[in-house]
Amino acid sequence: MTYRGFSILIRTPIIAAALVVLAACAETQPQLPPSGQPIALSPATQGELAAYLQRVKVTRPGAFAVSPDGRNSYYTWCDDTACATTNYSFPALQGCKGLAGTECLILYVRYEPRLVSTKAADAAPGGQHGSQQQERIEWDNKDGGGR
Predict the structure, then answer these.
(1) CA 96 to CA 136: how far, in whole Å?
(2) How many whole angstroms separate alpha carbon 76 and alpha carbon 146?
(3) Does 18 reside within a domain?
(4) Fewest C-beta in 10 Å: which of 52, 97, 133, 141?
(5) By the 8 A CB rule, do 79 and 52 touch?
């Protein structure tokens, strides 16, 4: 006599392992920029990227934008899990464009790279950089119950 109900219990670890593998494959991989070449980051931009990654850590929201030549950058972040913006990419792109005078590209969202980049040790000096911390949402915890 066979019990068909137990077969799902035996296969559960196999199904779980398959789901883990699929989830790992679904992670966003950095893409090449429209130019087809990785963005070569100047040493100053590399320093700004390191500062951004320290601020967002793994759990904080933010976005890092860079000019196509890798010399200018701007990032925005939240020092909490929820701030008064829903899109961190827009202010990062606007800030970068204001500094660079040209359209910029999103290099990172949160702690995840979106575009492929390299280090340009022999990059020309110069470039401008900026950042903006988004305002934290202050929740009103008053219940109005007259307590």
Answers:
(1) 22
(2) 39
(3) no
(4) 141
(5) no
Domain that holds residue 51: 38-133
User: Residue 74: which residues within 8 A CB-CB, separation 6 or more?
Assistant: 64, 65, 92, 93, 94, 95, 96, 98, 99, 104, 129, 130, 131, 132
**24 in any annotated domain:** no
Instruction: Please give the tally of structural domains in the chain.
Output: 1
Collapsing DSSP to helix, strand or coil, 67 comes out as: coil
Q: Tell me the backbone φ, ψ of residue 59, rounded to 5 degrees.
A: -110, -10
Is pTM beyond 0.70? Reply is yes
What is the residue whose two structure tokens read 């196999």? 14
Give the model confidence (pLDDT) of 12-68 as tens digits: 566 555 544 444 444 567 787 777 888 999 999 999 999 999 999 888 999 999 999
Number of other residues whose CB lies within 10 A of the CB of residue 102: 11
Q: What are the percentages of helix, strand and coil residues in the chain, rounded to 5?
A: 35, 20, 45
Residue with tokens 């792109």: 93
Tokens matching residue 59: 């759990």
In a domain, 20, yes or no: no
